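Here is the promised in-class demo. Please do not try to memorize the tokens; focus on the logic of going from shape to residues.
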């Protein structure tokens, strides 16, 4: 039997599996998906999980139950490209004929001492739950510092304000303000919303180190009770340790079929892949569908014909009643983008679950 192994059951990996199951798998091929957890976590909503405004069970998507899909749970420790083996902690390695690397990302700490020790994360399901536990323990009128004024940082701050109106909340960013990648109209709207909801915004902050309860902006001490890190992402260590061509973000360079050029049996999807746009669930799902198309072409001895991936836009929430978004070049603000984001979440649950 031949094996197609999917390493990671997130947006990209699960999309590959479901699309292949829908379109058929050769009888001589086994589909194997490996993940640490027995369910997919909806990562785009981890900001709400960390703030406590949604229950973790509402962000779980059960994996498909299908005799053609073998689910394996474990911690992937290495992918041996030369010998075509996926190594797992305390388990026998799994061989493959084709493999899709869909391992996602981890926080980028920018070599700031103490950042990985004295801050909390929302990059994984378990990390977001731990952040929620930590935030729950903050006493009334305590100080929460969110490092990073991008989309994730803003959503965490807004959701936490809704969950804990008693807390002092601040966002720190290296730039002059929040949402530097967004148009000025959206920046002004979100800044106004945060200001009206007593979220402090500090720009031009250049952190040099973190200690327990203290952030150091050069020689200035900034006191804090909890620090939530949302200041950038990078591929997971397994990908980071691969001696292969990468882009400046450390993501693996791939060809037009989402394959490693020197290892065409290896596909890369999601946050580990070098794409012409920012990492997102939307991009990972689009890639996943195309990788399934490529595999169908390989199995039927045809040449794949893939179109250009087109993303629909970006949506962000400001609590449960307001939001913002960018659809093409059009900025949208207020209730409409928040309703659209809720609709996207509903469709994700319906499609995957």
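The designed amino acids, position by position:
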């Amino acid at each position: 039997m031949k094996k197609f192994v999917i390493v990671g059951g997130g947006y990209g990996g699960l999309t590959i599996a479901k699309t292949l199951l829908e379109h058929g798998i050769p009888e001589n091929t086994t589909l194997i998906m490996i993940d640490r957890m027995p369910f997919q976590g909806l990562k785009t909503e981890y900001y709400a999980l960390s703030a406590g405004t949604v229950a973790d069970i509402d962000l779980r998507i059960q994996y498909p139950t299908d005799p053609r899909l073998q689910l394996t749970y474990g911690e992937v420790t290495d992918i041996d490209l030369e010998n075509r083996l996926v190594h797992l902690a305390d388990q026998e390695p799994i061989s493959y004929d084709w493999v899709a690397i869909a391992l996602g990302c981890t926080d980028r700490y920018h070599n700031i001492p103490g950042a990985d020790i004295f801050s909390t994360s929302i990059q994984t399901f378990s990390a977001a739950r731990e952040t929620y536990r930590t935030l729950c323990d903050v006493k009334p009128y305590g100080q929460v510092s969110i490092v990073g004024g991008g989309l994730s940082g803003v959503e965490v701050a807004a959701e936490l304000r809704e969950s804990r109106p008693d807390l002092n909340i601040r966002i720190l960013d290296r730039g002059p303000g929040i949402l530097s990648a967004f148009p000025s109209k959206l920046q002004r709207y979100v800044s106004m919303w945060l200001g009206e909801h007593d979220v402090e915004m500090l720009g031009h902050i250049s952190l040099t180190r973190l200690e327990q309860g203290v952030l150091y902006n050069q020689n200035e001490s900034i006191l804090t009770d909890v620090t939530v890190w949302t200041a950038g992402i990078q591929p997971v260590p397994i990908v980071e340790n691969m001696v292969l061509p990468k882009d400046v973000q450390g993501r693996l360079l791939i060809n037009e079929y989402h394959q490693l050029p020197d290892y065409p049996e290896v596909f890369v999807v999601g946050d580990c892949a070098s794409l012409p746009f920012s990492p997102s669930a939307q991009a990972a799902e689009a890639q996943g569908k195309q990788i399934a198309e490529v595999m169908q072409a390989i199995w039927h001895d045809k040449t794949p014909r893939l179109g250009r991936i087109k993303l629909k836009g970006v949506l962000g929430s400001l609590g449960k009643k307001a939001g913002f978004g960018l659809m093409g070049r059009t900025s949208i603000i207020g209730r409409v983008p928040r309703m659209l984001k809720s609709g996207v979440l509903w469709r994700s649950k319906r499609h995957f679950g």
